[in-house]
Amino acid sequence: MQRVCFLLKVRPERLAEYRERHREVWPEMREALSRTGWHNYSLFLRDDGLLVGYLETEDFEAAQKAMAETEVNARWQAEMAPFFENLDGRPDEGMKPLTEVFHLD
C-alpha cells in the first residue's frame, strides 16, 4: 500500500466555510473516492490555512486518474477551487506528494 501525504493552502478568509463543507462531504463523492482506490483518507487543517492530506492507495496515479474521470469529482473540484491559494488548475491537480523519509509500523 502506498502512503501519500500532500500540502495545499486554504485562503484564511475561507477557513470556516472550508471546514463546514467537509463536515458533510457529498455521499456520492465519498463513494467515488472509495471506489477509485482512496483509502484511509484524512485532511488536517491548521489555523493559518495549511492543509495536510493523507491517504493510502495501491497506485496514487491510477487513483487520481480514476477519480478525475468521475462527474462528481469535476463538480467537487469546481466548488473547492476558490478556497485555495496558489493553484494552477484544480485542487486535485495541485496535490504534489511529499517524499516519505520515515515510517514506523
UniProtKB/TrEMBL annotation:
Q: Name one GO molecular function term.
A: racemase and epimerase activity, acting on carbohydrates and derivatives
Cross-referenced SUPFAM superfamilies: Dimeric alpha+beta barrel
Q: Give the source's domain of life in one word.
A: Bacteria
List, in alphabetical order, the GO biological process terms annotated in this UniProt record. Answer: rhamnose catabolic process
UniProt xrefs under InterPro entries? Dimeric_a/b-barrel, Rham/fucose_mutarotase
The protein in question is named: L-rhamnose mutarotase
The source organism is Nonomuraea mesophila
